[in-house]
Write a structure and sequence with these properties.
The chain is of the alpha+beta class and about 230 residues long. The chain is about 15% helix and about 20% strand. The longest helix has 13 residues, at about 15-30.
């Protein structure tokens, strides 16, 4: 294990009380942060024997939620389930979601178009970043693992996308986070059908809740998207 005390050249690692509180508030505001989406625990493509969902309808539902269907990923971790109302867009065309467990632990999944250095934490410091210093930065198989005192994340490149699984070290141990990172994959049509809001609804309107239009809009300030990505994603 190679430990480094310098910051990497990727988005700030704010494994943060701020992010945790923001996610908690967002999930609380939608009514039930730990409600799982049906059939979203599978680690691999669903392989369902049922009739395939209509692809054009899936694309339309993704577009209505401001999402690119090909950027929707899913994962699994023991004891965690997708909080369906957390599903939302990151940046211009990225994807984000949160998996929760009954004790309040959260694993954040994010998929964004980012440069190589946003995945590879070994490639030098990020100029001007305000963040906790890294205490660990290492390659782990096909992924990079990075950790600050409070949070940690696994990241890997998939074409021009960077897929990140992250959480607080207090809530999510490394083995659980690694398992979630290894299980992460692009959603197949059956999984898209379960993850995307139903036709005519946004994610926040699912199960009769008020809509949550964007997962990256801060609750205070000028309303500009918050695209900071830390050890929590």
């Amino acid at each position: 294990m190679t430990s480094r005390s310098r910051s990497p050249r990727f988005r700030p690692l704010l494994l943060t009380t701020t992010l945790t509180v923001t996610l908690a508030l967002a999930l609380t505001a939608t009514g039930c942060g730990t409600e799982p989406a049906p059939d979203t625990r599978a680690a691999g493509p669903s392989g369902s024997a049922g009739p395939a969902p209509d692809r054009a309808e899936l694309e339309a539902r993704a577009s209505a939620a401001q999402l690119v269907a090909e950027h929707v990923w899913v994962t699994e971790a023991a004891g965690y389930a997708l909080a369906r109302q957390s599903v939302g867009v990151l940046g211009d065309d990225g994807f984000g979601s949160v998996y929760t467990e009954p004790e309040g632990g959260q694993i954040k999944l994010s998929v964004e178009r980012l440069p190589h250095t946003d995945a590879d934490c070994t490639d030098g410091p990020a100029a001007g970043s305000e963040q906790e210093p890294l205490v660990t930065c290492e390659r782990d198989g096909e992924q990079w693992y990075r950790a600050t005192e409070s949070g940690h994340a696994y990241a890997r490149e998939q074409g021009d996308l960077v897929v990140t699984l992250s959480g607080t070290r207090q809530e999510v141990d490394r083995a659980t986070l690694r398992a979630a990172a290894l299980a992460a994959h692009r959603a197949d049509d059956y999984e898209l059908d379960q993850v995307l809001p139903p036709a005519g609804k946004t994610a926040g309107e699912t199960a009769g809740r008020q809509p949550v239009e964007r997962g990256d809009l801060p609750p205070v300030g000028d309303g500009a998207p918050d695209n900071e990505v830390g050890a929590s994603g």
